[in-house]
Design brief:
Elements: H1 4-10, E1 23-27, E2 30-33, E3 38-41, H2 44-47, H3 56-68, H4 81-92, E4 100-104, H5 107-122, E5 126-130, H6 139-143, H7 148-151, E6 161-164, E7 179-185, H8 200-211, E8 214-218, E9 242-245, E10 256-260, H9 262-266, H10 284-299, H11 302-316, E11 322-328, E12 331-336, H12 339-351, E13 354-355, E14 365-368, H13 376-397
Parallel strand pairs: 3-13, 5-6, 5-7, 7-8, 8-9
Antiparallel strand pairs: 1-2, 2-3, 4-10, 9-10, 11-12, 12-14
Helix pairs in contact: 3-10, 4-10, 11-13, 12-13
Length: 399
C-alpha cells in the first residue's frame, strides 16, 4: 500500500522535490523499495549509518536495552549503564583533555551546547566560524552558518558572530581576546569536503591559545571512523577544547554529543544550575546503539581499511566529467563540471539502483559517504553504475 500521497500531505517537506523512495527495508549496504528493488547505498543516511543498515550488533544492543528499560528520567539525574559505559569508552580513546561528554539528541543540539560552554568558560560573547560552514539548523547553529542565502529568511539571529575563510592563514588574525569560541568543521562538509591544508588547524589552535579562545571542532560528519581514524582531528596535529560529534556515532540512531575537560563541563552544573538540559539526551536505547557502534569500530579493522577503500574509489572513478575527488577516507565528493551534470548523475544513478546525494553549498558535488562496512565488490558495482551514467551523459552531450 502506497503512502506517497500521505507523505506529501501530512509530513512536512524540506525541499520542493524530495526523492520520495518508498522504503520497504534496509540491510547492510542496500535499501529496498516497496517494489522489491535493491538500491546500493553510497550515502549511508548522510554519513549516519556507520556500520550499514541494521548491523546485527547494533540491533542486538537495541533489543536488549528495550527489554531492560527505556526512558526513565531527564538527562544527568539517574545512573544508566549504557550512557556511562559509552562516555567512559569515549574518554579512553580521546586525548586526556577531552574526558567528559554530554550526550544529546543530535549534532546541532551539541553545537548549541558547545557555543554555550565556550561563552561560559570565557565570559565572552563573540563566536567565529568559517564561510560556507554548516553546523546544523537550530538558531545558534544557523547563526554561525557561513552561507547567508540559507539563513536570511530567519533573521534576526544570534549577534556577535564573525567569519573567516577556511585554509586562509591571514584570517586567523581575526581571532582576538574578545572571541569566546572558534567553531570549525575539521573537514568542511557542505562546502564540498574541503580538507585543512598547510597545518591550518594547528595554526588556528595556536592563535586560540594566544587569545584564550575556545577551539570547537565539529566532527559531526568526519567523526566515528569515516576518515580512517576515530575522529578527523587526529590526523591534523590539533586537539580542540570542545569536540562535537553526532551522525555516525549512533549506528543509524539519533544522537549527538559534545566533549571537553572535566573542569570545563562542570561549569554547566551551577551558576546557573541546569546550564544545559535535555529530556532525552543519553537515552539508554540510543546510547546502547552508540556503544555497540564504537565497540565494533575499535575492535575491528574497519577504520584502517577505510583508507584502502578510498583508494579503490579514487582508482575506479576516472572520467573526464569528474574534475576532482575531494575528501578523506569514505567522506568523498566528486566535483563535476556543472550543477546540471551533478543533478543528472544523481537522478540517473537512482533509477539504476545506486543512491548518491548532493552537498549543501557546492552545487557541482556528488556525495559519496557509504557505510564503512561496504565491501570491495559493492564499491566496484556502484562505481560501474556511476561510470556508465557518466559515459551516457557524455555521449548525449556530444550528439
Amino acid at each position: 500500500m502506497s503512502n506517497k500521497n500521505d507523505f506529501f500531505t501530512y509530513q512536512a517537506q524540506t525541499t520542493p522535490h524530495p526523492l520520495a523512495m518508498e522504503v520497504s527495508h534496509a540491510k547492510g549496504s542496500y535499501i529496498y523499495d516497496k517494489k522489491g528493488k535493491a538500491h546500493l547505498d553510497f550515502v549511508a543516511g548522510v554519513s549516519a549509518c556507520t556500520l550499514g543498515h541494521c548491523h546485527p550488533k547494533v540491533v542486538d544492543a537495541i533489543k536488549k536495552q528495550v527489554d531492560t528499560f527505556m526512558h526513565v528520567m531527564v538527562y544527568g539525574e539517574y545512573i544508566q549503564d549504557p550512557a556511562v559505559t559509552l562516555t567512559k569508552l569515549l574518554a579512553k580513546h580521546l586525548p586526556e583533555s577531552l574526558s567528559t561528554t554530554y550526550l544529546t539528541n543530535s549534532g546541532t543540539e551539541s553545537i548549541e551546547g558547545a557555543i554555550k560552554l565556550a561563552k561560559r568558560i570565557t565570559g565572552r560573547s563573540q563566536m567565529i566560524s568559517a564561510f560556507n560552514a554548516y553546523h546544523g539548523s537550530t538558531i545558534g547553529s544557523l547563526s554561525i552558518m557561513g552561507f547567508e542565502e540559507r539563513k536570511r529568511a530567519f533573521r534576526p539571529l544570534m549577534p556577535d558572530v564573525a567569519y573567516i575563510t577556511f585554509n586562509n592563514d591571514a584570517d586567523i588574525e581575526k581571532i582576538s581576546s574578545k572571541t569566546a569560541g572558534v567553531v570549525l568543521e575539521t573537514i568542511q562538509g557542505g562546502a564540498g569536503f574541503i580538507v585543512p591544508e598547510n597545518d591550518y588547524l594547528k595554526k588556528v589552535r595556536n592563535r586560540c591559545d594566544a587569545t584564550g579562545t575556545m577551539l570547537i571542532l565539529d566532527e559531526i560528519q568526519p567523526g566515528f571512523g569515516r576518515t580512517g581514524t576515530l575522529f578527523g582531528f587526529e590526523q591534523y596535529n590539533c586537539i580542540p577544547d570542545i569536540l562535537v560529534m553526532g551522525k555516525g556515532m549512533g549506528g543509524g540512531m539519533p544522537i549527538g554529543a559534545f566533549t571537553s575537560s572535566y573542569e570545563n563541563m562542570k561549569l554547566l552544573q551551577d551558576h546557573p544550575k541546569l546550564g544545559h538540559i535535555t529530556t532525552f539526551g543519553g537515552h539508554p536505547v540510543i546510547a546502547a546503539a552508540a556503544l555497540a557502534t564504537l565497540e565494533e569500530l575499535i575492535t575491528t579493522d574497519l577504520m584502517a581499511v577505510t583508507l584502502e577503500k578510498e583508494k579503490i574509489f579514487r582508482s575506479l572513478l576516472q572520467h573526464k566529467l569528474i574534475l576532482e575527488i575531494r575528501g578523506v577516507g569514505l567522506m568523498l565528493a566528486l566535483i563535476l563540471k556543472d550543477e546540471e551534470t551533478t543533478n543528472r548523475v544523481i537522478l540517473l544513478c537512482k533509477e539504476r539502483g545506486l543512491i548518491l546525494f548532493w552537498l549543501l553549498f557546492e552545487s557541482k558535488a556528488v556525495r559519496i559517504t557509504p557505510p564503512l562496512t561496504i565491501s570491495k565488490k559493492e564499491i566496484i558495482d556502484g562505481c560501474n553504475i556511476l561510470l556508465n551514467v557518466l559515459c551516457d551523459i557524455e555521449i548525449e552531450n556530444n550528439t
